[in-house]
Amino acid sequence: MESKRKPIADAREIRREQTLRRLGTRDAECPQCGERDPAALTGVAPDIICYGCLAAERGQPTTEDHHFAGRRNDELTVPPPANDHRVLNDLQRDWPERTLRNPDGSPLLAAAAAVRGFLDILQVIIERMAVWIPAYLEWLDEELRRRHDDRWWESFGWKGTGPAR
Amino acid sequence: MTVPPAEPLAIALRAYVPATAKKRRKGNGKPRREPEHSDWALVFDVETTIDAAQERRIVTYQVRHDGELVERGIAYEPSALDKNEIALLKRYACSQGFELMTVAEFVRERFFPVTYALAGRCIGFNLPFDLSRLAIDHKPGRTRFRNGFIFVLTDDPKLPRVRVKHLNRHAAMIEFTVPASRSPEQRNREKGGSSDHHRGFFCDAKTLGDALTSGSHTLASLAKLLQTPTQKLETEEHGGPLTDKYLDYAVTDPQVTWECFERLEESFDRHGLSETRLHQLKSEATLGKAYLAEMGVQPWKLCQPGFSPELLGAVMSSYFGGRAAVKRRHEVTRVLYCDFRAMYASVCTLLGLWQFVTADGVVTRGVTNEVRELLAGLSLDDLRQPSFWRKLCVLVQVEPDADLFPVRADYAGTGQPSIGLNYLSKGRYWFTLAEVIASALLTGKVPRVVRAVRFEPRSPQEGLKPIDILGNPDYRIGPYRNDFYRHLVDLRGEVKRECAAAEKAGDLAQKDRLDAEQKVLKVIASATSYGIFVELNVHALERRGERTGFGHAGRFTTSPARIEEPGKFFHPLLGTLITGGARLMLALAETLAAREGIGWAFCDTDSMAFARPEGMEDDEFIRRATEVCDWFTPLSPYADGGRLLETEKENFALRDGKETDTLEPLYFLGISAKRYVLFNIGSDGKPILRKASAHGLGHLEQLYGEEEAPKSIPAPVVKLSDVGVARWQYDLWYRIAEAALAGKLRELRFDDLPGFNRPAMASYTAATGHMAGWFCAYNEGKPYREQVRPFGFFISPVIASDGYPVGVDPNSFNLVAPFNSDQRQWGKLRYLNLHDPSGPRYPISTSVRGAEVVRVKSYAEVALDYLFHPEAKSLGPDGEPCGPETVGELFPRHVEASRVEPIGKEANRLEEIGLLSAEEAVISYGSTVSECLPTLITSTLRDIDRASLVRLSGLSRRALADILAGRAYPRPGNLKRLKAIAARHARQQLRAWGIRAVGDELDVLEQYQAEKAKRGSERLCEGGCGRQLSGPRRRFCDACKQRTYRQRNGW
Lengths: 165, 1051
Fold this sequence. Notes:
The complex is a heterodimer. Chain A has a two-stranded antiparallel sheet. Chain A has a two-stranded antiparallel sheet with strand order 3-4. Chain A starts with 10 loop residues before the first helix and ends in a 10-residue tail after the last helix. The relative contact order of chain A is 0.09. Chain A is built from seven helices and four strands. Chain A is extended. By secondary structure, chain A is mostly helical. Chain B is of the alpha+beta class. In chain B, helix 8 packs across helix 18 (508-528). Chain B is globular. Chain B starts with 6 loop residues before the first strand and ends with a helix. Chain A binds chain B through residues 3, 5, 7-9, 13-14, 17-22, 24-26, 44-45, and chain B through 33, 35-36, 38, 40, 63, 70-71, 99, 101, 105, 108-110, 113-114, 117-119, 195-196, 198.
């Protein structure tokens, strides 16, 4: 019986915990590139490595073909980096089973899968490629204030933004 | 001191029966990875009904992530609440922002997701009880969890069950099983530990609190001790209709539990033990072991697996534990109560035992002549030299002849052996050199030494690491450089001084911090200095099989039902040397007191109360007792040079409930070992209790708390926790002390105390499969939730000796009934006999006995029995064994070992004490054991004509000669036959003497030997006529000889 109550943690969080246990440590990190997403890591502590670095070590391509709508819905693939591919695969496990497998080949389910695949890619872009940018800019502002002064941009000859203060 | 006449008595000695080697875990050879818990935690508490079933009503819980509260909620059992209560719950949950669900939903949507899927910690207080209340069914535990339980929490086969095995009243092993839905391959892989499966992370705040604070706590007392921001609320509404107030109480519990857990985790983290996880902490001993593991100390049993098991048997036979005795009984005695500073740690340092702990084994050396010389030239001054104590790591085999040694025997005839320092004669036994010296000091004569073996540490283990105690570099201990025990006690002394200075300076935060630190140091010192070396865990065996054991006289065979598995740092040599050293300390105090012309009233492991002789001035008494204390000061191994034997706080006057620096006369009244009270006498002549014992009363249900206490008895001046008893026990002791002061101990009655006329009721928890099994018949036909289930409570009345119904065997008659909190109902319940659970139910009465009515003791009767409990291991002033009415000074008995029984752990199955027969509580290896051979069987076999013996036994003449001379050891089958032959002979002889033989073979042999000793050297005709024979080689009288000759030849 499906409960209407909000689960205490989503399935992705649970999978993350299981992966961490498989990796044998709660501080899992690729020693070569610093990758920290458990879905992109393999091995057992202390010999942990990410899929990207593993492929590079083996002389294999560092991008992999990803069936963004699921293998059963569309043969179309995109070539994300190996680590992102693992994360995208992990996200696909949250899709409804019928959408991912689409046993009857329903075009509506295939369309739903394509949209879900597209959203997953956007999520990965946001989470893994863009989410660090604002935090980095905030850190940089703090650093420049410390090194110069509170209006550090003036020493670079730049103008401040917004209405004149 | 005159030695009393010897009395034959069977004595018991500890023996070593190796456990079967554990199967090696299959795997790839890599060390097993310990799974780690996640940042999630579930804290929960179950509120139940207060009837027999203790059915769950509501569960209050908190889900936390990284310590932050994620969700609070209440789960309810719909069948246990009415419509109004559920409506109230809904309103309450809505107004307070709580999630509300049923218990089944809680288990499915909160318990398993957090504790299993997310590998979070499961936190509770007394978790076994709470988990048992969540269960919808249970099954018996298997293998490691034998006698434990497997709880089924859900029907979902993909989810695991929870298995629980009760260890003691502080701890239990709790873990998830591998879910049944897994394929066999998966299950095998997961059991092997190479996958992501985990067994759960169950943290019982009670276990952690008890281990880290060296106490036994309730949630309220733990929260108070740890000064958590939220304290447990009180309620009287258990079992009543739900109210807002009761819900406030219920939802506070998980919060208090969490806060306690946080404090305990902080405290554990301060130890900086990287090798041990918090959820693995089961006791103080775990902490001690963790410290040794942290330093890289390898257990002795791994360093020296080939150590001679015969010698190990001898070592075990010399182990007796601490000494507890009472010298003055039923007499108010003025005492000075003193205590050895960190007794076991001090003995460890004096004997240099840290070197043994860190050595990669021990070597032995025969030192018989050396020891004989040492004993011959021994003086008290030698014992005052710390360097002399280093020579005491010696085990001595002695042939005692009225020497004072610890003797373990069933003095009271109850089947439960107790240990008394008594005169021992006959046989050969192993004791530590310290005990031999103690005997020499107390008797004034040196025991006859047969053999002595010195133990020396081998070279230190390699790769030991220094550790920072409490993570503080100032508290660094180097295993090669420092004596761990001395350093710990020194550190504690330093911290205590700083703590006192901080208190004086008004820096309360600093004072609290330092006080916590000194307590932790105390815990570490006690955790590492004794118990871990004699840790033996008892397991029931699935199949009885013949095993070889090792005892004081070598090897023997036995088929025990239970086996003792040594703990990780098992090193019985250290255990026996430590307790032997402590016994020597007490013997020294006793000798010195006698030299100073003062007496002693009682001693208990590390403390002794000196007694003022009649007519001596108080100042003079104190001066002399202080002289005794000062004698020990040069032995103090500690840097501050303080006293080793210190006066206890109870000797000092109280002001506003706190001790001052002024001595106040302290009085003692003792009943038997560990049953005593210490008190001052107020200006009105009434006692002011300072310390009392709950020993022998602790299993009884509390009659009342402080609020309901009778007005006629003044409230305690010091905190009850400092006195050491509950309020009703305090009142009992007060009455005893008051009557003793008035000289009216014999007329004392307790009937006027509230509730003392009710049936005395012991309460138990059905913590083992064996105990839960008693209620199978009671549970039959009842739905699961209404049954008496594992970890539920039950009560058992104390049956009067004349109260058994007609025709029942008192040895197999114990009454129990499901728990009932209403004391007024106890007399109206019907009780079942746990030995015949499906049999009739018995009514009880404290006054009358009928065909079916069982007369049970009231609290007043139990209190009187307690007061007149005989100290059977001692003799009274009249030279007779101490009886109920004995008053005055007690003396040692004189035991002549009629037989020696090898036994295992005595303090065993403690949770069932009172319900088990005494024999069941002790692991006995004796029934088939040859240790009895030298003393009982051989001496009887020698009375039989050798030719007949050869014929009857089927053994050769030479083999028999070797066995009887102790040169050879019979095989089990032969031993059995010899025992039977000896017993048959003994029976025949007893019959010839006109005595009826009773009991089993060993009893008959014992009876025969006793009778033979009584009759001196007389030899009787084997023809059965009972005539005395004249010559030493004659077997028959003339008449019988002729008659036999005629019969044989058919005349």
